């Protein structure tokens, strides 16, 4: 992967990073380093695959890092290592952005913001696939709708039913639920690079009336999106959510809100 880095890294350079496992698929370094260069900031954005989030955050705190993005599988786990958490983070039980301010770690959920900006629907029947941090953000962002959560691990889906105003259904009922749904949201990593030919939803279940939103953004057109389009459904790429949540994170760290279309040109 190629991405922009500031010309000179010195003792005053602040560190931003992505923490998760896996991270190789991420376009966050590409986007954030381009934004850093554009705004002439003494920052650098790196990514670290870690198997121990607690130790990773402690090490970064020791070197006075500025902030981080948190990705799978740590969006919920990260909350126990933070000093303060924003409203959306508390409400959905997951965060994806950390700000280090005078040694205190502040957590934010910009995924909720990204979903709201990408998928503006109300009073619709929504199917959310998944039960992790992204699915929790979707349930919160889409709370003005009738939301059904389906996950291969049914007990995990039931946790979302308990925490949100939604209904959990076992995976075996997917076909019946698809027939009753207006909007379909994939909040799982299935179909993400390098497993680009994977999808949880058989092509035959898509209909023309569906609006299909895949949170996976690499590849831009996942198998799920391609299958939905071939059936005449309207689709929304995960790139939309990625751009909105990323620019919101950038604003939290720097006070600068990048223009969304100029950010889009970096990664599309």
Shape: globular
CATH superfamily of the largest domain: NAD(P)-binding Rossmann-like Domain
Query: How many structural domains in the coordinates?
Result: 2
Q: Name the poorly predicted regions.
A: none
Describe the structure.
By secondary structure, this protein is α/β, with parallel strands linked by helices. It has two domains: 122 residues, Rossmann fold (3-Layer(aba) Sandwich), CATH 3.40.50.10860; 128 residues, NAD(P)-binding Rossmann-like Domain (Rossmann fold, 3-Layer(aba) Sandwich). The mean pLDDT is 95.
Quick synopsis:
35% of the residues lie in helices and 21% in strands. The chain has helices at residues 28-38, 53-62, 87-92, 110-118, 133-141, 154-163, 174-180, 223-230, 238-254, 260-267; strands spanning 14-20, 43-49, 67-70, 84-85, 97-101, 104-108, 125-129, 146-151, 166-170, 183-186, 211-214, 234-236. α4 crosses α5 (133-141) and α4 packs across α9.
Feature tags:
12 strands; 6-stranded parallel sheet; 35% helix; Rossmann fold; 6-stranded mixed sheet; single chain; 268 residues; 21% strand; globular; alpha/beta; 2 domains
Q: What is this structure's SSE topology?
A:
Layout: E1 14-20, H1 28-38, E2 43-49, H2 53-62, E3 67-70, E4 84-85, H3 87-92, E5 97-101, E6 104-108, H4 110-118, E7 125-129, H5 133-141, E8 146-151, H6 154-163, E9 166-170, H7 174-180, E10 183-186, E11 211-214, H8 223-230, E12 234-236, H9 238-254, H10 260-267
Helix pairs in contact: 4-5, 4-9
